[in-house]
């Protein structure tokens, strides 16, 4: 009886882990897409625009790195 409960619990935990891994991968892909899209946001010839673009791009890169770190822990 106890073994069945443990087995069921482990099965549920595995399903949750797979769901979290899937979501983490989806988030990583979304950030990658944002990084790609960000390259189109820069307005050539506008100095302030360049600085804003660089700050936003760096923030997205940091977010991407954190997501990869989280994904490494989860898998």
Structure description:
By secondary structure, this protein is mostly helical. The protein has one domain. The chain has 2 helices and no strands. The chain is rod-shaped. The two termini are about 30 Å apart. The model has no long low-confidence stretch (mean pLDDT about 80).
Helices and strands: which structural class? mainly alpha
Q: How many beta-strand elements? A: 0
In whole angstroms, the N-to-C terminal distance is 30 Å
Domain count? 1
The global form is rod-shaped
Radius of gyration: 20 Å
Beta-strand percent range:
under 5%
Q: Approximately how much helix is present in the residues? A: over 70%
Mean pLDDT: 78
**SSE topology string:** HH
Number of helices: 2
- Unreliable spans are none
Largest sheet: none
Q: Tags for this entry?
A:
single chain; 2 helices; mainly alpha; 75 residues
Topology (SSEs and partners):
Blueprint: H1 2-38, H2 47-74
Quickly describe the structure.
The protein has 75 residues and is mainly alpha-helical. The longest helix is centred in the first third of the chain and has 37 residues. The model has no long low-confidence stretch (mean pLDDT 78).
